[in-house]
Amino acid sequence: MNEDNKKKWPKRVRNVIIVVLSVIALLALIGIISFGVLNARGKSNLYRKAESSAPTLESIQTEAQGDVAAEEERTWEKGWVRYNDAIYQYNEDILTFLIMGIDKMGKVQAVDMGIDGGQADLIILAVFNPHTKNTSLITINRNTMTEIDVYDDNGEYIGSGKGQICLQHGYGDGAEISCERMKKAVSNLFYNLPVHGYFSINMGAIKAINSAVGGVTINLEEDFQAERDGIKASLQKGSNTLTDDQAHVYVTYRDTTEFDSATNRLNRQKKYIAAFISKLREETAKDITVPIKIYNELSPYIVTDITVSEITYMASNTLDYTFDFDNIYSLEGTTVIGKTEHEEFSYDPDQLYDMIIDIFYEKVE
User: Fold this and answer.
1) Which of 95, 150, 259, 363 has a 20 to 30 A CA-CA distance from 164?
2) Do residues 348 and 144 lie in contact, with contact meaning Cβ atoms separated by under 8 Å?
3) Are the CB atoms for 331 and 55 separated by under 8 Å?
4) How far apart are CA 307 and CA 298, in angstroms?
5) Is the distance from CB of 297 to CB of 212 less than 8 angstroms?
């Protein structure tokens, strides 16, 4: 402000302007500090939430025995794993989240403890690696046979046994307790893998999810036609920007008369999720608050133990992480009709072990 302008403006006006500018600067500073506090608190909370510090893998030597003499020269540290003539250690900076899509169309409503919590039709581990700055997704077939905790109609614990992993969510309240039990089952399946949070959403929210990012564009390798909940979808081979109705059918439709239809639907879900994440990253790059806005909009359909401070930390620290379809892994195996006449997916333990090493471990040099 030059001297002429100072003379034109009364002293009272100048004082008011100074006060207003000071208030604006103070509010901006408070905003920056608040964001920083949320960011730091979110990081601290996330790393404390996992019930284990590392998977409990056993050393496996699948090739010829390694250089034993060289190995004896180094001090073996707790948590190291020997695999394929190399030594690996768990990457403790990784953050892993369990994402579930529950087969309920309405908003989340807790139910009486028993067997009506809803099945987990979509099960994904989202892995954020700050060392490589990439995001990976691990999809798990809903019919994967693994150890689950079983309860009766009154919610009383019966025991544990082999069952489809999707059923674990049903044994609970359809809310926090169901999610905690799913988190335990998935962690156990992955050798007690640390899981830092869960996020479940009723599949009835797909329309809202699609709308929240202005539509998701996917590239189809063949035509897709189906009907679900009275909604018909007809998509042509090639690029399609899905309407909310089309997204609902594409993601949730499953022909139960078709063998291994769960795998076919999972493949479509993988394609949609990859496209959704790309679109979400674009929108978040324009506005860092987009994830929180979407979360608030979809909250009636969501159950999660991830707090606003934790969302703030993840949104602000993973924007530059790479992600593409090559970062989507699948638990591999075969589907058969079990003794109960239901489909059962038997996973390949060697492939699971190899995948855990590849994604969560680093070679000790």
Assistant:
1) 95
2) no
3) no
4) 14
5) yes
The closest of 305, 311, 359 to 139, measured between CA atoms, is: 359
What would the two tokens of residue 346 be? 């038997």
In a domain, 325, yes or no: yes
Instruction: Count the domains in the chain.
Output: 2
What is the sign of the dihedral through the CA atoms of 179, 333, 271 and 282? Answer: positive
Residues 259 and 187 grouped into a single domain: yes
- Rounded Cα distance, 281 and 148, in Å: 35
Show Cβ contacts of residue 315 under 8 Å, excluding neighbours closer than 6 positions: 284, 288, 289, 290, 291, 292
The C-alpha atoms of residue 346 and residue 182 are separated, in whole angstroms, by: 18
Angle between helix 261-286 and 244-252 (nearest 10): 140
Question: Residue 85 domain-assigned?
Answer: no
Question: Could you give the CA distance from residue 105 to residue 178 in angstroms, rounded to a whole number?
Answer: 17
Tokens standing for 279? 């679109």
Are the CB atoms for 274 and 325 separated by under 8 Å? Answer: yes
Which two three-digit tokens encode residue 206? 């797909």
Neighbours of 208 (CB within 10 A): 17
Two tokens, residue 18: 């100074």
Instruction: Say if residue 21 is in the same domain as residue 141.
Output: no
pLDDT tens-digit profile, the chain (365 residues):
455 544 555 655 455 444 444 444 433 333 433 434 444 555 667 877 787 888 988 766 544 344 544 455 567 787 789 998 899 999 999 999 999 999 998 899 999 988 999 999 999 999 999 999 999 999 999 999 999 999 999 999 999 999 999 999 999 999 999 999 999 999 999 999 999 999 999 988 999 999 989 999 999 999 999 999 899 999 999 999 999 999 999 999 999 888 988 899 999 998 998 899 889 888 888 887 888 788 888 899 999 998 877 877 787 788 788 887 788 999 999 999 988 888 999 999 999 999 999 999 999 97
- Check whether residue 288 and residue 178 sit in a common domain: yes
**Parent domain of 275:** 50-57+95-363
